[in-house]
Amino acid sequence: MSLLPARKKYYWVWFLWLAAFYSTWAWLNFGLGGWAAAVAHWPIAAAMAMGSYVAGSTPMGGGTVGFPVLVLFFDMPATLGRDFSFAVQSIGMTSATIFILARRQPLAWSLLKGAMLGSLIGTPFGIFFVAPFIPELWIKVIFAVVWASFGVLHLYRINEIAGHSGMTEFDERWDFRLGLKLGLGAGATVAAVTGVGIDMVIYAALVLLTRADLKIAIPTSVVIMAFTSVLGIAVKAIGPGVQPGVYENWLAAAPVVALGAPLGVFVVELIGRKPTLLFVAVLCVGQFVWTCVAERAALGLGGIALALAGVLAFLWGFEKLRAWGAELVGERREAATTKAATPEKLATEKA
């Protein structure tokens, strides 16, 4: 996997982006009369202050906070939460991505390129042919299950995940194909249905399969979520249509996340990624419990059991991915050792 080398930083690119965004946002509010709607939806802006930090400092998009706030706390439709996730991340995650690129942070480029191509195909497919057939209740449950499993994984594997340094180098074509498959599958399913999740899938592959450093895995997950969010909201806008209420909430939250997500990228390097990941992991498990309690009447015991089984299935998949990663790392080290051995050394060992 090729990595961006440490070079001169180009913060002016990010400041140029901010100037363009805030000029557009001001025109929408004061030129087209959106200010009243933005002020009326100030609670989501307050919530996204934390959500945007999560987006920039962890492998979880801002929708990880925005979705449960709108759906669980404000009792909005899950489809609105999904579309809002796409919309708000298209600003916050894009801002964080530009900041990451301006700072020349290392990324897993081969896997990322494959994931972007996969998402380009999978996300529109999922929006048109998968998401419309998922009931509102199960959009909530799928979101809760995916992020609960992610939270539990970090609660018992955090030391191992945070202890990786660099990453295992495989063949770049292999990395690209892996990213393509993951981007295609995650884009068509979890991202299209909930508005988040493809970042978690790519992150999991990086930390469990290639043993990537968090300084590589998290920025890479931010970039793929930015790409998928812009793609997702664009497809929704020209295709099935965006849910009513998304624009008004976006007007309120967008100026917050444009700064908050890049701030998360910067601040997490000062306080460390492990405390942030643990905090968010607890939130992920908490929102699962909240969803099961809030929807217990609709789910019944069978539905709750199915949700728990879903969490266990994801954890099983994570552990299989980790085991595969250990096998591949071992094979790679063995191949490197054999390649490094000279004929004289091999002859001496045989003797």
TrEMBL record:
Q: Where in the cell is it found?
A: Cell membrane; Membrane
Question: Taking the first listed entry, what is the main subcellular location of this protein, grouped into a coarse class?
Answer: membrane
Work out whether the entry's keyword set contains Lipid metabolism. Answer: no
Q: List the GO terms this entry assigns under cellular component, sorted alphabetically.
A: plasma membrane
User: Its topology with respect to the membrane?
Assistant: Multi-pass membrane protein
The domain of life is Bacteria
Residue ranges crossing the lipid bilayer per the database entry: 12-38, 44-72, 84-102, 108-130, 137-158, 178-209, 216-238, 250-268, 275-291, 297-318
Q: Which UniProt keywords apply?
A: Cell membrane, Membrane, Transmembrane, Transmembrane helix
Q: Which family does it belong to?
A: Belongs to the 4-toluene sulfonate uptake permease (TSUP) (TC 2.A.102) family.
| Name of the protein in question | Probable membrane transporter protein
The record lists the organism as Gimibacter soli
